[in-house]
Structure formats: C-alpha cells, structure tokens
Amino acid sequence: MRNRKTLYCLLPVVLGLLWVCYSQIRLTAQEGPNYVGAEVCATCHADVFKTWQFTTHRQTLFNTDPSKKGCEACHGPGKEHVAGGGDPTKIIRLIRLKPSESAEICQKCHTQEETTLWHTSAHARAKLTCMNCHDVHAVGEKSKLTDIDNGKQKVEGLGRAIKQTELEAAIAEKGSAEKAAASERVQELRIERSALEAQLKGEESEFDRTAEPYVCFNCHKDKEVQSKMPSHHPLQEGKVTCSSCHNPHGGPNGLLRQESVPETCFRCHADKIGPFTFEHPPVTEDCTICHNPHGSVQNNLLVQGQPFLCMKCHSGPHSRSGTFGDPSQIPNYYTECTDCHSQVHGSDEHSALHF
Fold first, then answer.
1. Are 204 and 210 in contact, with CB atoms under 8 Å apart?
2. What's this model's pTM, rounded to 2 decimal places?
3. What is the pLDDT of residues 60-119, one digit of tens each?
4. DSSP-derived secondary structure for 47-83
5. CA distance 293 to 300
6. Burial of 73 (C-beta count, 10 Å sphere; 0-12/13-18/19+)
7. What is the spatial distance between Cα 248 and Cα 110, in angstroms, rounded to a whole number?
8. Which of 73, 114, 116, 286 is deepest in the core (most CB within 10 A)?
C-alpha cells in the first residue's frame, strides 16, 4: 500500500520530466537545424558582433532555446540567410517591420513589469519602435560613461606629461641627444593626445545619442530647453534622469511611474506629503498647478512669480481689507506671499499656512 502511494506521488514528477525531454527533443529536431549560431553571424558581421558581445544581450548565448539565443533571438533562424549568401530577405530585419511587430520580438524576452504596458503607451501610439530609443548592438550607457571618464583622465595625464617633457627639452643642452629625444617625445605625446581626444569626442557623441536625458531630447526639444532654465531638476548634473519620474514604456498620466503627479513628486519630496491639519488643495490635487517640473525661470520651479501666482486663485493679498483702496497695502503686491505664508504645502499650526 505504501509503495502504491509513493508511486502516485512520483507519477506527476516522472510525467513532467518526460514532457520536458520530449519538448527539448522536438525543438532540436524541428527548429535546431534552422539555426546557425552567433559564431556564424560573426564571420560576416564582425564589427557589429564585436560591440554586441559586450552588451547585456550577450547573456542570450546561454539560453538553451535556439529561438531565444544570440543574434537569432531577434533576427530569426539564419540558415536560409547564410545559404542565400547573406540574402537580406531571408532574415528578420527589425527596421523593416511594423512598430507593433518589432515590439513583439523584443517582448519575447523583455517581460519585466514596466514593459507590459508598452502597447497602451503614448510612445507606441506615436508609432515609435524600441530602436528609436535603444541601440541593441551597442554597449550600455554606464559602460560608455566609464570609458569617457577614463578617457578624460588619460587626456589630462597626457597633458601633464607633455608639459613635463617640454620642460625637459627646454633645460637640456642645445644640440644634445637628450634635447632631441625629449622634443621627439613631446611630438609623440601630442599625437597620442590628439588621437585620444578624437576618439573621446566620438564616444561622447555616441553617449549623447543613446543615454538619458539626451535620447529623450531628440524628440522632446521643449523639455531640453526647460531643463536648462535657471531653476531646474538636476538633470544636466546627472543626479536624476527622465526615467526617474517617467516610464517610457507606458504608464498613467503622461507615462508617470505613479498613479498621479503628486504621488510621483512625493517619492522625492516626502516632506510635502503630510498629512497636515490644514492642507493647501493644489498640493494634493496636482503639483504642476504651481510648479513646472521640467524647468522655469522662476525660483523653485514656479510657473509664475509671486505674488501673481498666488493671485490666480486668491483674488488679492488681504483683499477683504480693501487693498486697492488702502495705499499702505500696495507694497504687498511687490513682496512674496511666502514671506509670511511660509508653509504653503500644508500646516499643522494655522489655516493660513504659516506659524
């Protein structure tokens, strides 16, 4: 009786293993011969493969499923393409596909939560493809930034070496072998620095093309201008990125990562969240009523200067006391409301939002 119970417990496991083996055998038999492997692709596409193998996509080489392995994970089986001498019609070319079709290929592997909303996103409705923002054959922006920083440090080091060698040439005896060697070394260092600067310029251009926020600015030119205004989030300084607030693959209310504007802002500005005994309605409704998050010429990202911003909702400072009829109250229009009403995001002390 005990053996029978053990057999019943093991039966599902055995059947499951048999099914896995059968599926693998069928996959190998039916699909395997159509795939040639990334090594074959590299024989013709050496330059592309050289950079691709340093990307995160190289991890697909460890997949056992040939349809999700290497180059053919995106471009499909390569047997007919190779047999046709590189016939481009015998391979999947993502740039020739409809945006929805190319997105489906990417989403075979990219099943992360933030990409599941892509088909409902504003970017998808605008007929953009993944390749409009991503270069799948290039290394990541963090690696590029590291290379750029290292390159700049090396350029600075070469500059110091040039100055030192120039000094050696200057103090060496005229016509001596030491002076000639130092002068020759100066020229070599200058040539090396010029070559590195040219390479660095190319890497910076590539970085600007593929990294945030620059890739976003390719389309959102107005936001680029705003980000350079006197009051701005530290986007140019590299402390935040567009994706800190937005999910470019989909999301509510302007691709926001949270359900609303205040919830998005409160992720960083937690001191403004309250709850307060006395609340300022715009704070809980929409921060952009008073602030332009992408940049402003006014302090604190305000959409308009004080007191005129406040007067959009409040008819006038202390209007009940007859401001316009009392000359002594006119200076109130030339001061900031927050000089007195300092707790504009909420207060536990006073309904006028000040202590």
1. no
2. 0.68
3. 999 888 888 999 999 999 999 999 999 999 999 998 999 999 999 999 888 888 888 898
4. HHHHHHTTSGGGGGGG-SSGGGSTTHHHH---HHHHH
5. 9
6. buried
7. 14
8. 73
